């Protein structure tokens, strides 16, 4: 039989960037246009198979509001992986993502696997042509990629709405988890 590895994963990022929506897409392949804000944190699990190993993701989806920020260490303290999420149409959320990366580097596990996730990619695409609409994007792909390169992060642009690259984020993390 295949080995099963549990991976404790935490989602961090400003409120409304789509953290809960990414989890809903990954766990239930679903999307809700008006998702209610997360209070405190939510816990979900999802198993997936990568090559010869089975990974059970134990997912802590945190609330992004400032009043919950002091709770975040409870969730990232023992995490083996983190998704730091921003909204590519909201520059302030990218600044916040950079702060989360710094906080993780200072306080989380030294070998934590971090994926920087630039969400809501669908919002910058034209429905007719499928091409990017000029000016729709407020955080360039280079800004995201540069931060990822500087800090040694995985980097994906995603859409929880269309499911673009959502499984890929979790698969890339799973591939980096050492066998035990
Ligand atoms: P959270 O506070 O980071 O957990 O964000 P939510 O998952 O609650 O999402 C906030 C709002 O953004 C909701 O109305 C979602 O439907 C919407 N949303 C989340 N992800 C996407 C996405 O990829 N594209 C679009 N267009 N909207 C999204
Ligand atoms: Mg949420």
TrEMBL record:
<dbReference type="GO" id="GO:0005525">
    <property type="term" value="F:GTP binding"/>
</dbReference>
<protein>
    <submittedName>
        <fullName>Unnamed protein product</fullName>
    </submittedName>
</protein>
<dbReference type="GO" id="GO:0003924">
    <property type="term" value="F:GTPase activity"/>
</dbReference>
<keyword id="KW-0547">Nucleotide-binding</keyword>
